[in-house]
Structure formats: C-alpha cells, structure tokens
Description:
This protein has 278 residues and is an alpha/beta fold.
Amino acid sequence: MADWRPIIKCRDNGFPRIMGVINVTPDSFFERSRASNLDEILERAIFMSENGADWIDIGGESTRPGATEVTLKEELDRVSKAIEIIRDELPNIGISVDTRKSEVAMSALKHGADMVNDISSLSDPNMKNVILENDAPICIMHMQGIPKNMQNNPLYEDVVKEVKGHLKLISEELIQSGIDRRKIINDPGIGFGKLLEHNLSLLSAGREIVAHESMSLMWGVSRKKMFEDLLGRNETKNRLAGTLGVAAMAPKKGVDIIRVHDVREHVDLFSTLQALER
C-alpha cells in the first residue's frame, strides 16, 4: 500500500495531484485509455508513474454515456490481477479502483489498491463498510441517473446548489458511519447527467461544491463530450487542447486531484504554469 495521505490533497505549491486512467475494458469512450492484457496494463502504469502520476485509476467497467453494467465476476476478473501487478511493480504509487460494487472494492483493496472511486456515491449500501474496514479514502461523485440513461435530457434548477447538496448528503452519511471527512474526495461528475451549461457552471464553481474544507476536490474532464459541444471536436483524439485548457484553471479553483488520460502533458502544463509564477 502507498502512503495515500499526502496525495489526496494538492501539492504544497497549489497544483493538483495527477491521476492517470487505465481502463481494463473493451468499450471505454477513449480508445487509447483501454488496456487488454496484463503486460499492456503494467507498461502503461510504469509510463504514467515515470512521467509524474501520483495516482493510477483502474476501472473494469465502462461508465460512458449509454454503457450497460457488467457482471460482478467479469469486473473482478478484470480489476484484481491488474491492481496486484501494478502494486508489485510500483509500491509507492497511489492506486484507485473505479467501481460501484462493494465486492470489487474489497477485492481491489486486498490486492493493493489504496482508494475507492465510486461514481455512484454509495449505490451499493455495503460500500461504507468496505471503506471503514480497510481505512481507505473514497471519492464520491454526483451523477443524475445511471450511465445507461444519464444524458437523456438532464434537468436542474440550480446545478451548483443541487450537486453540492447531493455531495454534502453523501459525505454526512459517511461521516456518521465513522469515516474521517479528510478521507472523502468530492467529484462534481462532469459529463455524468449534465449538459454543457451544467458542466461549465460546475467547473466555474470549483471548491464551492465541497461542503467541508477538510475534504478534497477531484475533477475528471479528460477528453469528454463537453469538448464536442464546446469546440466541435467530435473525435476524442482531438480533445486534448480543451482538456488542458480546463486543467490550467484547476489550481485557481482549488482542485486537489485531476483525473486524466494524458499524464505527461498535464505534468508539462503544470510545470510551465508554475515557472510563470516566479
């Protein structure tokens, strides 16, 4: 296990920690994030680590718009061994498991993961117990609906207020269960049941959605459909510039962790921005 305590908060210089994404799936929305075998998974993890990633996020189920849920066995088979080989090779990097299922979270933590990234915010009622038993941090995310239907005309009266209220409610449930609020990471869920206007409002709000200052904030905007709507970039391979544009605002918005497909490019971006602050 890595020492995750310092890396769930931003760096001392105010720049976010970088979480590299590896999808052990055949259908995640960005093709180049997919890895189909253990050698490829390990190669990508090592590349991300060597290029400055603080975290590796492993997902065994696509949650892109329209995605359908995979079976427990299939997700376990995809995730557990992948995490084990990464932990053996990279003992000091943070490993996050992207899952909605408590059984997958438990297996991942036993195989060397440090954190659970639960996009469903405790849809599995046993997830709290897994977090408590393993003394692990958890990322909770706002999503209107489920991946299969979440982009079917999402509606809000005040998206910032509603997302903040949802995350506060889930955070308080975790805290009342005995989980230290400093182990809770909040994610506004960009692109998860939201139109472009909603995404832009949430990004502009930054830490405003976080109910307690001691909790962390994570953004996941990498190559998402919002850049098709905003910039007309239909193909995910053409959305890096928009992604980096949003990332450049992350330090000013109080982001602690930024979840990305392109680790080296984000490290270069933050290094350049830091140099300009001298």
